[in-house]
């Protein structure tokens, strides 16, 4: 049936407490962004873990709000306008 595999994946990820974004690409992104500010910033290994934990928690929160807005609009498909509204309302 359509969507069965997707629902199974969603349940598996919701039950997991592991970080979902791979560490390597995330660290490269953080270092690239901080290099734009030319601060010469250096990170301890646990600081990068904390930044990643906070970033993933923020994404989960925004997607949760966006999902609620999708349901309020009586749709089943998340659209970009739902994410935009979630950011505008909750910053």
From TrEMBL:
<keyword id="KW-0238">DNA-binding</keyword>
<dbReference type="GO" id="GO:0000786">
    <property type="term" value="C:nucleosome"/>
</dbReference>
<dbReference type="GO" id="GO:0030527">
    <property type="term" value="F:structural constituent of chromatin"/>
</dbReference>
<keyword id="KW-0544">Nucleosome core</keyword>
<dbReference type="GO" id="GO:0003677">
    <property type="term" value="F:DNA binding"/>
</dbReference>
<dbReference type="GO" id="GO:0046982">
    <property type="term" value="F:protein heterodimerization activity"/>
</dbReference>
<dbReference type="InterPro" id="IPR007125">
    <property type="entry name" value="H2A/H2B/H3"/>
</dbReference>
<dbReference type="Pfam" id="PF00125">
    <property type="entry name" value="Histone"/>
</dbReference>
<dbReference type="InterPro" id="IPR009072">
    <property type="entry name" value="Histone-fold"/>
</dbReference>
<protein>
    <submittedName>
        <fullName>Histone-fold-containing protein</fullName>
    </submittedName>
</protein>
<comment type="similarity">
    <text>Belongs to the histone H3 family.</text>
</comment>
<keyword id="KW-0158">Chromosome</keyword>
<dbReference type="InterPro" id="IPR000164">
    <property type="entry name" value="Histone_H3/CENP-A"/>
</dbReference>
<feature type="domain" description="Core Histone H2A/H2B/H3">
    <location>
        <begin position="2"/>
        <end position="89"/>
    </location>
</feature>
């Amino acid at each position: 049936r359509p969507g069965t595999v997707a629902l199974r994946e969603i349940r598996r990820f919701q039950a997991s407490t592991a970080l979902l974004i791979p560490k390597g690409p995330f660290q490269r992104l953080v270092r690239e962004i901080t290099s734009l500010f030319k601060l010469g910033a250096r990170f301890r290994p646990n600081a990068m873990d904390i930044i990643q934990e906070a970033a993933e928690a923020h994404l989960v929160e925004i997607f949760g709000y966006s999902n609620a807005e999708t349901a309020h609009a009586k749709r089943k498909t998340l659209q970009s306008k739902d994410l935009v509204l979630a950011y505008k309302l909750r910053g």
